[in-house]
């Protein structure tokens, strides 16, 4: 499960690591359910389909949602039931799949007997793409807005991710995609998409990144941040 993460929001990193163009830079900030963050989808450009970056609400809003607050319950979609639950079924069956670009995700660690937020990321702060579903939702004021959810798989046997969440709870982790699979995840047939529902087996780094006592969720004592771009303008 993942209710808090740092999105990739710089256009140089989105282009370099995800092959998608964004028209602006934003500072990477901790994102919680109902927050607005970039996601990558396919869009038709007249001559075919290309990857585009849109901003969406973290927490998928089905057509029957009457308020944005519905997304507090739908930011993660279980891979085992995404095809049948009413909140997710249409997005899944219509193939509205996306890649959610992440600098880091956060999970709760209970090994000390208390809940401590930990950050999980790749060595060298290389961003990674999480498999997701998305859809448009009609806001009560008449606007169409995007929303999305991260897909998750069981992680009871994963060497790192089994350390998170309460001891009595099932262990879950988001579906991290190999970069070489971004294109096929976005374009494959619905019946083939479940082939990507597997735990990530490559190395991940994890460290404590606690929230301050009694602080609102928007803040943090230590937030994982990607490296700043060098003066030359290249990525590294």
Short overview:
By secondary structure, the chain is mainly beta. It has four helices and eleven strands, in the order βαβββαββββββααβ.
What's the number of extended β-strand segments? 11
Q: What does the largest sheet look like?
A: 11 strands, mixed
CATH architecture: Alpha-Beta Complex
Which spans of ≥5 residues are poorly predicted at pLDDT below 50?
A: 215-222, 229-236
Strand content: 25-35%
Please give a structural write-up.
The chain contains four helices and eleven strands, in the order βαβββαββββββααβ. It is mainly beta and 236 residues long. Strands 1, 2, 3, 4, 5, 6, 7, 8, 9, 10 and 11 form an eleven-stranded mixed β-sheet that branches. Strand 2 and strand 3 form a beta hairpin. Helix content is 11%, strand content 32%. The protein is globular. It has a single domain, classed as SOS response associated peptidase-like (hypothetical protein yedk fold).
SSE topology:
Blueprint: E1 5-7, H1 11-18, E2 36-44, E3 49-58, E4 76-78, H2 86-93, E5 97-109, E6 116-121, E7 128-138, E8 144-154, E9 172-174, E10 176-177, H3 182-187, H4 190-193, E11 205-208
Parallel strand pairs: 3-8, 4-8
Antiparallel strand pairs: 1-5, 2-3, 5-6, 5-7, 6-11, 7-8, 7-10, 8-9
Describe the structure using short key phrases:
236 residues, mainly beta, hypothetical protein yedk fold, 4 helices, 32% strand, globular
């Amino acid at each position: 499960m993942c209710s808090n993460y740092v999105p990739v929001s710089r256009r140089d990193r989105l282009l370099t690591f995800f092959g998608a163009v964004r028209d602006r830079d934003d500072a990477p900030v901790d994102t919680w359910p109902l927050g607005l963050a970039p996601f990558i989808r396919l869009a038709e450009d007249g001559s075919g389909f290309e990857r585009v970056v849109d901003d969406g609400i973290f927490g998928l809003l089905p057509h029957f949602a009457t308020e944005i607050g519905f997304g507090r319950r739908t930011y993660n979609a279980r891979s085992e039931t995404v095809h049948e639950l009413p909140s997710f079924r249409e997005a899944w069956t219509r193939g509205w799949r996306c890649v959610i670009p992440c600098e880091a995700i956060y999970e709760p660690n209970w090994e000390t007997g208390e809940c401590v937020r930990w950050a999980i990321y790749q060595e060298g702060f290389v961003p990674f793409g999480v498999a997701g579903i998305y859809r448009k939702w009609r806001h009560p004021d008449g606007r169409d807005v995007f929303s999305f959810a991260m897909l998750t798989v069981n992680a009871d046997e994963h060497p790192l991710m089994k350390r998170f969440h309460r001891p009595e709870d099932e262990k879950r982790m988001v579906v991290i995609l190999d970069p070489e699979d971004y294109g096929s995840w976005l374009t494959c047939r619905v019946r083939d998409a479940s082939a990507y529902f597997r735990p990530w087996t490559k190395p991940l780094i994890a460290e404590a990144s606690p929230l301050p006592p009694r602080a609102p969720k928007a803040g943090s004592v230590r937030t994982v941040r990607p490296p700043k771009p060098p003066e030359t303008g290249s990525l590294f």
